[in-house]
Amino acid sequence: MTESAIDLESLSLRASLDACVKCTICETQCPVARVTPLFPGPKFVGPQAERFRGASDTSVDHSIDYCSSCGTCTLACPQGVKVAEINHHARTAMKQQQGIPLRDKLISRTTLMGAAMTPVAPIANWALEQKPIRTVVEKVIGIHRDAPMPKADGHTFSGWFKKHTPAPQSGTKGQVIFFHGCAGQYFEVQTSIHSVEILEHLGYEVLVPKQGCCGLALQSNGLYDDARKYVSRLTEQLRSVSRDAPIVTASGSCGGMLRHEAREILEMEDPELKDVSNRTWDICEFLLDLHRKGELDEELERFDVTIPYHQPCQLKSTGIGMPAIHLLELIPGVKVVESGQPCCGIAGTYGLKKEKYDIAQAVGEPVFDFIKDVNPELAACDTETCRWQLRTATGANVVHPIWLLHKAYGL
Questions:
Q1: Where does the 4Fe-4S ferredoxin-type domain start and stop, copy by copy (predicted)?
Q2: Which of 32, 38, 164, 257 is most buried per CB count within 10 Å?
């Protein structure tokens, strides 16, 4: 299937369409519709509008472009209608009719961005803090001048991994494959390092094959064919070192791509992806499973702190619950308060775009206020872009939950 010929019939999404009873629950739960009249709601542009689209007529109301693809509508639907997925394909069809903007193509190449910024990290980070430069970028490319941007680390995770000495007990409990994702390779390197050190501390030999991008940003911006190629290449890379070991990731968005988006939105059904998807664990999910089996080291230092926690959309879509909360509360003295909000607004690259920035900020405002009220110094969130959004908006040190566990182990 080509990007220019998206057929919802062949993608099986219409199979869920007739289950829609127009109850409007998805409308009431949509974080975008509640802050802007530009988006009439997921039911209106999805199941309702889809009934008027034929296989050869993919035109849609332009308001669908304001859908952030957070997936809240699908999760909220009591009838099991794949609202977000239907909307995603309709929006992609519209973008392909009109032509995908250069900006959307550029911000989808996360590996290229990281590789370019890392060798010149101090200069790149400085440039991203300069208002005149950001203003020019906004006018020329369309990335909002105040949008949260990643900071280059100056060294890569894979470079650290090649030089590091594994813990003495590494390998006593078997092997795991670590999937770091683009951000974990270039921008959130410390999170990847902490993850490996904890896994080795618990007795696992950590395998890190050469790995590329999962294609999530490409898929989010309508570049389906490119995204499928990235997914296929990544699954080959992750399977190259072991066909049995669990695949553990500290990137909730990248893990969500392999477990949900690639299968539900890109409709990839190859056995290699199914194998990788079924073996992929979010790191907090993996560690909590060890706890339930009595295999987790629970000799943890005490920290008396209240942590505001926000669960990202991608983790919600995988249906794993909130393992981070249960894991963090194993640390003596730690109290976790959950945001109760559907989305922080960033939605991957959505909140970077100049025409959507204000909407993204309005969507995220309840989360921003929540963090400021509970603990304006320290908060936790599982995905990278969400942490960048929350750090920029609140000034808090927003960390991956694994950061706190690493400190509690004294590593």
A1: 11-41, 56-87
A2: 257
